[in-house]
Automatic annotation (TrEMBL):
Species in which this protein is naturally found: Bos mutus grunniens (Wild yak)
Underlying gene: SLC44A2
Entry's Gene Ontology molecular function annotations: antiporter activity; organic cation transmembrane transporter activity
Protein name in the entry: Choline transporter-like protein
Highest taxon in the source lineage: Eukaryota
Catalyzed chemical reaction(s): choline(out) + n H(+)(in) = choline(in) + n H(+)(out); ethanolamine(out) + n H(+)(in) = ethanolamine(in) + n H(+)(out)
Length: 741
């Protein structure tokens, strides 16, 4: 949580004001431990000088200047460069390349406005060639491919069709513009027409042999073999191997299409589920303001009950599957399956779920036992945060602003990435069935028939291989993609930082108002937002830049780790694991430090480095308070999220699996019921996190201000406490009257 206040004003004032060294010393129900054990303020000055009393200080400073201007300039230049990259990408890119299949000349099949508009399917002349290793190297089958209106439905060979009435039917599967002015041998040698047509069915806009099994025997039509059109017969299994290679990269697309279909029939139910999560989150926040203590304990009990029901449900499913055929197969033996429903028919799956839920249940119960006394302290702090949020109600809507800005960042990054990845040019290479000295070299399909390469390799073809390029722009594509990722992280972190500073400024205004809410400034949230953008864009850019650099390094390490998985160098793997761990820890530390620095920026208007230093020093001077209070409240907020997500998730599970009889016929039929369930769970968590993040920032800000208050003031008329009456009562502190002074 956190935070640090500007260096000064902490320990001395706190000691002079007989401040409780650790919050436990004066809290109800807590015996006062020895002073030496509870004092967490550092007296040696190693963590900065506590803030001195300032009679003019009344909360967030309004007369402030711009901070970290250089970083603001860098951010502006980076955004200009990012826009330029986007314009270049949109000029050169073509997203159709990831949507439509392409023929041997790189032309799209089924694309409106082209000559292939009415030809949506891709036809392979000889799909057996797709079993070649070239498929994995070039992502293209070494056989001519054309766009056709429909896949072949008859079995024909060119040898039989060229002199019969079937030729007109056969001709539509030859190269565009083919004329019957060559002999059979020349046509097959030049690859103008396929040697054989095999009954096929479309799959992902590609024509694949209509292979089916009859009594365990693979067949096409009524045959187990087929004539290859060159005078010999081949087994159907060769077709299967070629089709597997050609369709291997399409299995993921098939899964994606099924998931997309599920979204199309369940999207409105998903939205209803997310609305329910939003209503529950808002209701929970409102009730928390008036019934914080009861709500916290109800929340704890409900989470335990939800986990308990999960354990019971897993056991019931485990018992139900006893004796069923195939239910005792292990997960290892089953392997990975794209249909995840298969796993729910295994007893081992439910045992794993039951063990995981039981471990979580035990951990939560143990934590509650050991932290039961500190929960009372956290409840008081949450009540104070509830009042602050109640006086700044528009703060609950601010996550929508953050969400909107993050959506813009994600949309711009994703679209730029797609346009960059599709801005390559069509590259044509020479493919040949036999060994050829020029095989694999680039070629021009327009001039290839009259080139020297075609004479060196008479049976070779110049066909589309992949999208690439040799220009300066194409060589810089990798760097542009990295820059795209870096800017996404930088801008996303900047948006989050802006939200943290805005909320911190609004809630700090509440805390430092002596007479709440009368002294609260008008529109504190908008004032804080304006101050953040006007004066501290550079500081926010600085903090988010540090975090973005670390995150990009982590992405690069993950990429390198994937590349090294096939390596046998154990030292390299160990070093990579150490680096990943170190940068993960560094990212967490920077996020923690940034959050507290942003609070100090919102209050004092200092630059990022000064704010981060003061925040860290204040944090270290009050380390016991941070450990006891802040983390307990974080834990309680986590339980609140789990309660909302668990409730909505269970409701979604029963609804989409048709287990609620009242609406059993209303639920849509799905390929994978887990698609909407997982979407609702993730969306519910994000919604709950948005609401609770406001509360979390409020608690963090009030806690930091509370520490500042204890160090600055002592309760005398000259130096009164700004904390609320509730906090004063809990800490057994009062503001002394003039007569008593």
């Amino acid at each position: 949580m956190g935070g640090a206040g500007p260096g000064p004003g902490r320990g001395a004032a706190a000691r002079g004001a007989s401040s409780p060294a650790g919050l436990g010393s004066r809290w109800p129900g807590h015996p006062s431990p020895p002073a030496a054990a509870m004092v967490d303020e550092r007296k040696d000055g190693s963590y900065g000088t506590p803030q001195k009393y300032d009679p003019a200080f009344r909360g967030p400073i309004y007369n402030r200047g711009c901070t970290d201007i250089i970083c603001c300039v860098f951010l502006f230049l980076a955004i200009v460069g990012y826009v330029a990259v986007g314009i270049i990408a949109w000029t050169h890119g073509d997203p159709r390349k990831v949507i439509y299949p392409t023929d041997s000349r790189g032309q799209f099949c089924g694309q409106k406005g082209t000559k292939n508009e009415n030809k949506p399917f891709l036809f392979y002349f000889n799909i057996v060639k797709c079993a070649s290793p070239l498929v994995l190297l070039e992502f293209q089958c070494p056989t001519p491919q054309i766009c056709v209106e429909k896949c072949p439905s008859r079995y024909l060979t060119y040898l039989n069709a060229h002199a019969s009435e079937d030729f007109e039917y056969y001709k539509q599967y030859c190269l565009p513009g083919f004329q019957k002015n060559k002999g059979v041998a020349e046509v097959l040698r030049d690859g103008d027409c396929p040697a054989v047509l095999i009954p096929s069915k479309p799959f992902a806009q590609r024509c694949f042999p209509a292979v089916h099994a009859h009594k365990g025997i693979l067949m096409v039509g009524n045959e187990t073999t087929y004539e290859d059109g060159l005078g010999s017969r081949k087994n159907i299994t060769e077709l299967v191997e070629g089709a597997k290679k050609a369709s291997g990269i399409l299995e993921a697309r098939q899964l994606a299409m099924r998931i997309f279909e599920d979204y199309t029939v369940s999207w409105y139910w998903i939205i209803i589920g997310l609305i329910i999560a939003m209503v529950l989150s808002l209701l929970f926040i409102i009730l928390l303001r008036f019934l914080a203590g009861i709500m916290v304990w109800v929340m704890i009990v409900m989470v335990i009950l939800v986990l308990g029901y999960g354990i019971l449900h897993c056991y019931m499913e485990y018992a139900r599957l006893r004796g069923e055929a195939g239910s005792d197969v292990s997960l290892v033996d089953l392997g990975f399956q794209t249909d995840f429903r298969v796993y729910l028919h295994l007893r081992q799956t439910w045992v794993a779920f039951m063990i995981i839920l039981s471990i979580v249940e035990v951990i939560i119960i143990l934590l509650l036992i050991f932290l039961r006394k500190r929960i009372l302290i956290a409840i008081a702090l949450i009540k104070e945060a509830s009042r602050a949020v109640g006086y700044v109600m528009c703060s609950l809507l601010y996550p929508l602003v953050t969400f909107f800005l993050l959506c813009l960042c994600i949309a711009y990054w994703a679209s730029t990435a797609i346009f960059l990845s599709t801005s390559n040019e069509a590259v044509y290479k020479i493919f040949n069935e036999t060994s050829c000295p020029v095989a694999g070299k680039t070629c021009n399909p327009e001039t290839f028939p009259s080139s020297n390469e075609s004479r060196l390799c008479p049976g070779a073809h110049c066909q589309f291989a992949f999208y690439g390029g040799e220009s300066t722009y194409h060589r810089a594509l990798l760097g542009l993609q990295i820059f795209n990722v870096f800017m996404f992280f930088w801008l996303a972190n900047f948006v989050l930082a802006l939200g943290q500073v805005t909320l911190a400024g609004a809630f700090a205004s509440y805390y430092w108002a002596m007479n709440k809410p009368d002294d609260l400034p008008a529109f504190p949230l908008f004032s804080a937002f304006g101050r953040a953008l006007r004066y501290h864009t550079g500081s926010l850019a600085f903090g988010s830049l540090l975090l973005a650099i670390v995150q990009v390094i982590r992405v690069i390490l993950e990429y390198l780790d994937q590349r090294l998985k096939a390596a046998e160098n154990k030292f390299a793997k160990f070093l990579m694991s150490c680096l990943k761990c170190c940068f993960w820890c560094l990212e967490k530390f920077i996020k923690f430090l940034n959050r507290n620095a942003y609070i100090m920026i919102a209050i004092y208007g200092t630059n990022f480095c000064t704010s981060a230093r003061n925040a860290f020093f204040l944090l270290m001077r009050n380390i016991i308070r941070v450990a006891v209070l802040d983390k307990v409240t974080d834990f309680l907020f986590l339980l609140g999220k789990l309660l909302i997500v668990g409730s909505v998730g269970i409701l979604a599970f029963f609804f989409f699996t048709h287990r609620i009889r009242i609406v059993q016929d209303t639920a849509p039929s799905l390929n994978y019921y887990w698609v909407p369930v997982v979407t609702v769970v993730i969306g519910s968590y994000l919604i709950a996190h948005g609401f609770f993040s406001v509360y979390g920032m409020c608690v963090d800000t009030l806690f930091l201000c509370f520490l500042e208050d204890l160090e600055r003031n002592d309760g005398t008329p000259e130096r009164p406490y700004f904390m609320s009456l509730t906090l004063k009562k809990i800490l057994n502190k009062t503001n002394k009257r003039q007569a008593e002074a």
